[in-house]
């Protein structure tokens, strides 16, 4: 049966307002956002927000802005009435609000009361709108500025109440929104009062500059952000970017601590978030997110803010330029930061070291019986080429490749050297000062003996100090003037190799080494096809591969830095990198700096660096450990490996003294 035709009719104005309110007022936080933005546009220096019932029962916003005259107050609650577009030009919007929809939309679904006074007026004015029905403007006593109260939100549309979350969740959403506005407007004091009793206050910053901005960011993001933040400032082609970015090892499990403002407007834009993700791509794990706050300033004509109902997204005239600016600025800030690791790593380490820390039960006390305790220290075993001094800055890192004996054999060898599987701390420490043990059969002897150096000559003044010991053939313990440094040798060397490979690629070509006997690597036919199709790109990275029949490739050359790495394992990892990058010919360029080709090459280099770095379980001589520390100090981004893990943790002497109850 055909439905009867219905005539087209105009909707009731109140119904129109309620429909529009569905876009503008999604939840209490949306109403608070619109009201606070109006206060900021009015020139307020202090904004106080009070809520009850998560914003359902009451939202009160008080500001000390310009206020409104009685005739302006009457127009302010009408749809599409605003003072923020004096010339009607939508291409040059300089205010946070501009549509004139907020007040009438809120008034359509709640009870709205406005009291306001300008600086020149002797008395104020008040107006009430109840579910879209407007009252008369009346005189009222008022301080300069505007006071707006919204009660019984969504009382006119009770179905919307079913979709709201708990009072606690709605309060958290309002607090998060206010934090974002506080980041964007450090010169304004923001206060949030809730039923919990403890107000959230962000004092106004009276000064202008990076120091004042950082104080506001610390107030919003927490005290840990200050010592783990790097300043950033870069301008290019009419765009100016400023702010602070967190160290790669200072990260969170969600992107809620990424703050972006565009011309003073807080935004959450996919293009900007993608640029940030690209900038941290090779310094942070894919499931972690940085902590940062960046402010982009540009001519209003270069950005369109009228593309989202909540005005949280923007569109740039030249998005590629914006992406490149963000990636370049973050890269430069991180490189200037040098070899730094987040201070939170030390806090976690101290917590784990305390009795019962990190959820572990305290170890039982044991009485010393005179037998030697299990040793954490082992004498270093040589593994260099003849006549070559160990150096991490040498043209080839091959001397530090994995030794040809396995872990079990090394443990057996260590047992033979000490007469048992254990050695006392005194014996192990002394072993570090003795001549190195004879080389394993088939290995060259060490280039030189090391018997230690006087304390005066030790590099304690270096940021990473002087190497003192190696624990579990994996971690280096270094001493500085005011504490100790624990270094993960594999993660640290992986970063060094990766940065060196990238540097060589940028300078014209990665040094390569031809194989005396080319190696055939078998694999599935489709994997061989993928690898051969990427051969031109791999050749730029020093890896020469050719097709060798169905399901096989022939490897003729490898990067010289990889030394004695397993060719088969290397090729397998490169296949994984190509697969994970999802890069096919003709793929659309991505914002992560360099597009598909750049991401492909970086992914491959990251896998290569893992094969060319010192493995966990590799014993290092003292001069090798010190060489690694010095190379880390000279290498940008050395505070984290390619996968985002920290390469070292610093413990101050004061922290250690507190751990032992000396403070």
Can you describe this structure?
With 663 residues, the protein is α+β, with helices and mostly antiparallel strands. The protein contains 18 helices and 25 strands. Strands 1, 2, 3, 4, 5, 6, 7, 8 and 9 form a nine-stranded mixed β-sheet that branches. A five-stranded mixed β-sheet has the order 10-11-16-13-14, with helices on both faces. A four-stranded antiparallel β-sheet has the order 19-20-21-25. The longest helix has 19 residues, at 319-337. The termini are far apart.
List the helices and strands and how they pair.
Blueprint: H1 13-24, H2 28-41, E1 46-52, E2 58-63, H3 70-76, H4 102-109, E3 111-117, E4 124-130, E5 133-134, E6 138-140, E7 145-151, H5 167-184, E8 189-193, E9 200-202, H6 210-221, E10 229-236, E11 239-246, E12 251-252, E13 258-262, E14 265-267, H7 270-279, E15 289-290, E16 292-297, E17 303-304, E18 315-316, H8 319-337, H9 344-353, H10 407-418, H11 425-433, E19 466-471, E20 475-480, E21 483-488, H12 489-506, E22 512-522, H13 525-533, H14 535-540, E23 544-547, E24 552-559, H15 567-581, H16 595-611, H17 622-634, E25 648-652, H18 653-659
Parallel strand pairs: 1-8, 13-16
Antiparallel strand pairs: 1-2, 2-7, 3-4, 3-7, 4-5, 4-6, 8-9, 10-11, 11-16, 12-15, 13-14, 17-18, 19-20, 20-21, 21-25, 22-24, 23-24
Helix pairs in contact: 1-4, 2-5, 5-6, 7-8, 12-16, 12-17, 15-16
């Amino acid at each position: 049966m055909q439905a009867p035709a219905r005539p087209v009719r105009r909707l009731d104005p109140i119904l129109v307002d309620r429909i529009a309110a569905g876009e503008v007022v999604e939840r209490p936080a949306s109403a608070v956002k619109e009201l606070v933005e109006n206060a900021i546009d009015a020139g307020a220096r202090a904004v106080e927000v009070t809520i009850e019932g998560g914003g359902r029962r009451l939202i009160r916003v008080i500001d000390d802005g310009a206020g409104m005259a009685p005739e302006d107050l009457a127009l302010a609650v009408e749809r599409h009435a605003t003072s923020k577009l004096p010339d009607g030009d939508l291409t040059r919007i300089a205010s946070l609000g501009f549509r004139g929809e907020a007040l009438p939309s809120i008034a359509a679904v709640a009870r709205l009361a406005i009291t306001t006074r300008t600086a020149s007026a002797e008395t104020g004015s008040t107006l009430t709108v109840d579910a879209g029905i407007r009252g008369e403007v009346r005189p009222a006593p008022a301080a300069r500025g505007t006071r707006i109260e919204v009660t019984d939100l969504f009382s006119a549309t009770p179905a919307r109440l079913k979709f709201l979350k708990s009072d606690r969740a709605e309060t958290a959403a309002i607090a998060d929104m206010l934090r974002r506005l506080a980041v964007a407007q450090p010169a304004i004091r923001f206060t949030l009062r809730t039923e919990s009793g403890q107000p959230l206050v962000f004092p106004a910053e009276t000064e202008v500059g990076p120091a004042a901005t950082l104080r506001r960011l610390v107030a919003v993001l927490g005290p840990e952000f200050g010592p783990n933040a790097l300043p950033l400032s870069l301008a290019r082609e009419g765009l100016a970017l400023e702010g602070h970015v967190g160290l790669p090892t200072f990260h969170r499990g969600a992107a809620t601590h990424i703050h972006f403002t565009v011309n003073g407007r807080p935004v959450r834009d996919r293009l900007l978030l993608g640029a940030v993700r690209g900038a941290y791509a090779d310094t942070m794990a894919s499931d972690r997110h940085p902590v940062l706050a960046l402010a982009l300033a540009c001519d209003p004509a270069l950005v369109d803010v009228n593309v989202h109902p909540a005005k949280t997204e923007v569109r740039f005239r030249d998005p590629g330029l914006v992406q490149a600016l963000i990636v370049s600025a973050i890269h430069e800030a991180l490189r200037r930061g040098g070899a730094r690791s987040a201070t939170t790593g030390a806090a976690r380490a101290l917590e784990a070291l305390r009795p019962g820390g990190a959820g572990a039960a305290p170890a039982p006390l044991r009485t010393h019986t005179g037998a030697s305790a299990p040793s954490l220290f082992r004498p270093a075993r040589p593994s260099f080429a003849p006549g070559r001094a160990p150096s991490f800055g040498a043209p080839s890192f091959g001397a530090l490749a994995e030794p040809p004996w396995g872990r079990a054999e090394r443990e057996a060898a260590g047992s033979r050297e000490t007469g048992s599987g254990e050695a006392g701390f005194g014996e192990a420490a002394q072993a570090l000062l003795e001549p190195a043990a004879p080389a394993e059969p088939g290995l060259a002897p060490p280039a030189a003996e090391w018997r230690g150096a006087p304390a005066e000559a030790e590099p304690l003044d270096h940021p990473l100090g002087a190497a003192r010991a190696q624990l579990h053939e994996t971690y280096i313990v270094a001493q500085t003037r005011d504490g100790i440094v624990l270094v993960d040798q594999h993660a640290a060397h992986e970063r060094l190799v990766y940065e060196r490979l990238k540097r060589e690629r940028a300078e014209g070509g990665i040094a390569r080494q031809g194989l005396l006997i080319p190696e055939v690597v078998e694999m599935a036919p489709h994997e061989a096809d993928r690898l051969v199709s990427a051969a031109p790109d791999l050749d730029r990275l020093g890896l020469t591969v050719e097709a060798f029949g169905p399901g096989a490739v022939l490897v003729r050359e490898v990067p010289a830095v990889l030394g004695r790495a397993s060719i088969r394992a290397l090729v397998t990892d490169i296949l994984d990198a190509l697969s994970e990058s999802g890069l096919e010919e003709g793929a659309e360029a991505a914002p992560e700096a360099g597009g598909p080709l750049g991401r492909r090459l970086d992914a491959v280099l990251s896998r290569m660096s893992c094969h060319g770095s010192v493995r966990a379980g590799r014993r290092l001589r003292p001069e090798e450990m010190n060489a690694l520390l010095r190379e880390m100090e000279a290498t940008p981004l050395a505070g984290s490996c390619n996968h985002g893990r920290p390469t070292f943790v610093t413990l101050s002497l004061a922290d250690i003294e507190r751990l032992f109850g000396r403070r």
